[in-house]
Automatic annotation (TrEMBL):
CDD domains: TlpA_like_family
Protein name: TlpA family protein disulfide reductase
UniProt GO MF annotations: antioxidant activity; oxidoreductase activity
Any Pfam family: AhpC-TSA
Domain Thioredoxin stretches: 17-180
S-adenosyl-L-methionine keyword on record: no
């Protein structure tokens, strides 16, 4: 079978569009699969809560396990992530409303120090800012930003990836309001 030359360019255009659609579909499917594998893995083991992360611009470090008896949001973020600032705004509202029952550990990932310092200075977030790159890479966390939510007993109760939709933190708000 021979393809007429007048149909060659349209044929290539259609083939390119179909290829782009397939690549997009399989990329999204792969990301969802990675996220589910990570969620299952991290919820079945408890080593992440004991990982020590150095506080930014300090000599000390901390871990989720340091805040037993409180809800903890372990947030992996970066100034280069378009969604981190939106997530931080929502989390900071929760942290201010529930200052006695919620702690936030904001682990910055692969970012330049001057950008981090400017970000922290520009925002008055009630977070513990830590260096999170090592832990992020060690656990092969499949997205930015990612929030891992712990209950007061130190158990993971939810994991959020990417941009926060309007309902993402609703269950956490209910838990915090009920004090459970």
């Amino acid at each position: 079978m021979k393809l007429d030359q007048k149909y060659f360019v349209p044929f290539l255009a259609v083939a390119a569009i179909l290829t782009a659609i397939l690549i997009t579909f399989f990329t999204i499917s792969s990301q969802k699969g990675q996220r589910q594998v990570f969620r299952d893995f991290v919820m079945q083991q408890d080593t992440l809560r004991y990982e020590r992360m150095p506080l930014l611009n300090e000599e000390d470090s901390l871990s989720v396990s340091d805040f037993k008896g409180k809800f903890v949001i372990l947030d992996f973020w970066a100034t280069w992530s378009n969604f981190s600032e939106d997530v931080h705004f929502q989390i900071s509202e929760l942290a201010r409303q529930h200052a006695d029952t919620l702690q936030v550990i904001a682990g910055v990932v692969e970012d330049r120090q001057e950008k981090i310092d400017a970000y922290i200075e520009r925002h008055d977030y009630p977070f513990h800012f830590v260096e999170g790159t090592t832990v992020f890479n060690k656990y092969d966390i499949p997205g930015m930003p990612t929030e891992i939510v712990y209950n007061p007993e130190g158990e993971i109760i939810d994991v959020f990836f990417g941009y926060p939709d309007s309902t993402q933190f609703d269950s956490l708000r209910i838990l915090l309001n009920n004090g459970r």
